[in-house]
Amino acid sequence: MASVCFDHVHLLAQDPIQTAQWYADNLGGEITKSVEVRGAPQIYVAFGDSFVIVRGRRGVEAVSDKGTLEWGIDHFGVRVDGDFDEYCASLKKKGVEFSMEPTDFNASTRIAFVKAPDGVAVELLNRK
What we know:
The protein is of the alpha/beta class. The chain has 2 domains: 1-58, 2,3-Dihydroxybiphenyl 1,2-Dioxygenase, domain 1; 74-128, 2,3-Dihydroxybiphenyl 1,2-Dioxygenase, domain 1. 17% of the residues lie in helices and 42% in strands. It contains 2 helices and 8 strands.
């Protein structure tokens, strides 16, 4: 019997160093590795035993080479344990922009959405 667990989200970034640092500075990740893979920087930002992997452009690669996104990932979510509203307030003090302010999603979950670099949406959630 196989089991599955979440491992990573892989992002393409215009400025991979700055983007990786944003995830470390604002969401509390730790940059654990920076390597070159197939001609592009690739930076690993750890969140426990899961990662956001941020990579830059490979050679003459263009965003349009990926095609237009019509269906696929809308956002990714990170769980915030502890005082959710205080955590969100600390992000605002750092200048992080919210696309959805903290709100009760249902009786047991509070959520918010922040705007990360390169148009990425990150859901913050706190399960009561």
